[in-house]
Amino acid sequence: MRGAPENGTASAATRALVVQPFLKRAARSEGPDARAPEGRLDEAVGLAAAIRLDVAGAVLAPLTGRRPSTLLGKGKVEQIAADVAERHVDLVIVDAALTPVQQRNLEKAWSCKVIDRTGLILEIFGARARTREGALQVELAALEYQRGRLVRSWTHLERQRGGAGFLGGPGETQLEADRRALGERILKIKNELDAVVRTRKLHRAQRKKAPHPVVALVGYTNAGKSTLFNRLAGSEVFAANLLFATLDPTMRGITLPSGRRIILSDTVGFISDLPHELVAAFRATLEEVLEASVIVHVRDVSHPDAAAQDQDVHDVLKSLGIDDRASADMLEVLNKIDRLPETLRGDLLRRAERDADVLPVSALTGEGVERLLARFDQKLGTARRVLDVEIEAGDGATLAWLYRHGEVLARRDDDRGIAHLRVGLDPADVGRLEKRLGAR
Q: What is the pLDDT of residue 9?
């Protein structure tokens, strides 16, 4: 039994035991077993702490094989039953995917509530969602997950945390109704989300007319995206040393060193074994990534499982259909260099001097941020066309449009009252300028 860290919860909080199953002879070169079980257990404890559960203990559970009835072996089930009784545990979190049968059998064996990794992540998302869209997406994912269960899995959490559960509190009855009622609720939420998606598309269309390119921050949960977002945008988006501190997308306009305006987008963090229900349900949120001119992958370079986390993020991006464009449109930011040993940090900074694509930063201290903003400028500038334009110097409206939408590289006014400009424009603005000049 491994001791869990204190998380500052009140004594009335739900007491939880975290169980990390792992195959003893698993090939750890790929998949969820690629990282050490101790690291996965620590992450699961962090997930529990993210919703203020009182983590009474954490257990590694080696498997020789997955038992269809309980997942875990008989001896381990009995050992955990004793731990549950001794520690007065209300909830056991099994950091794996449990079938409905396995969940019910373990609840009988341990005489307490049992949820799996998907159930825990859904509960966290429910506690974190702040907008109407976020709440709808979480509820949809929860209902899809519950299709085969048709039981209330989180009543104990709602009761302990004052009705903060994502299904609206114990008064809700959707999951206790029959499949028809469940299906009707799912359909209703999907229709509401369709309306949200249409509204979001209109907003994106308006931004394209503005037009400002979108730079989207993505990365593993707790990689420091929101801290970096706040550093770049001068905002106060909630950022904390918690898994899934950010769920609802946040966007801010910022000005790059060249004077170019961009829209910076902070997105939900990714995680290994992200429930497929959530990948589908949060697609509307992640559409900002699909539309981004540049995708910025923020990595916690100080994390012991940084390589595995990197692969997890790319797997989720691939599931969203942007794997083939990632190399052209993605920047990789190596965050939290302030946590590295001095020798490793020095090596990384020397690499950055030789390679413009190596971007070490500390979102906490601000180190490397100016270079990152300059790299945004360079990345976005590769798509720009440089044009030589002649405009009457008295055409103030067109000149103002060029300065607002493009990057004026040079200007010379001749004796005839003609302004000769060399200007960089995004492809969409080239067409708009041609129409503007043609309409005169």
A: 37
With a pLDDT cut of 70, the percent of the chain lying above it is 76
Residue with token string 């590295």: 340
In this predicted structure, which of 213-222, 250-259, 283-292 has the lowest mean pLDDT?
283-292
CA distance 135 to 392: 54
Residue with tokens 């299904």: 167
Enclosing H/E stretch for 407: strand 407-413
Sheet with 330-335: list strands edge to edge. 250-255, 261-266, 214-219, 294-300, 330-335, 359-360
DSSP assignment of 338-406: GGS-HHHHHHHHHHHHH-TT-EE--TTT-TTHHHHHHHHHHHHHTTPEEEEEEEETT-HHHHHHHHHHS
State pLDDT tens for residues 332-369.
Answer: 999 999 999 999 999 999 999 998 889 999 999 999 99
Residue with tokens 């009988």, as numbered in its chain: 108
Architecture of domain 212-381: 3-Layer(aba) Sandwich (3.40)
Instruction: Summarize pLDDT for 294-332 with one digit per residue, the tens.
Output: 889 999 999 988 988 888 888 878 777 776 444 557 899
In CATH, 15-118 is 3.90.79.10: no
CB neighbours of 199 closer than 8 A, spacing ≥ 6? Answer: none
What are the Cα distances from residue 183, in Å, to 147, 151, 172, 174?
Answer: 8, 14, 15, 10
Distance of alpha carbon 220 from the chain centroid: 6
Which of 267, 271, 352 lies closest to 310, judged by CA?
271
Kindly provide the b/e burial profile for residues 358-394, where b requires at least 16 CB atoms within 10 angstroms of the residue's own CB. Answer: ebbbbbbeeebbeebbebbeebbeeebeebebebeee
Report angle CA 168, 170, 174 to the nearest 5 degrees.
Answer: 70
Helix, coil or strand: residue 201:
helix
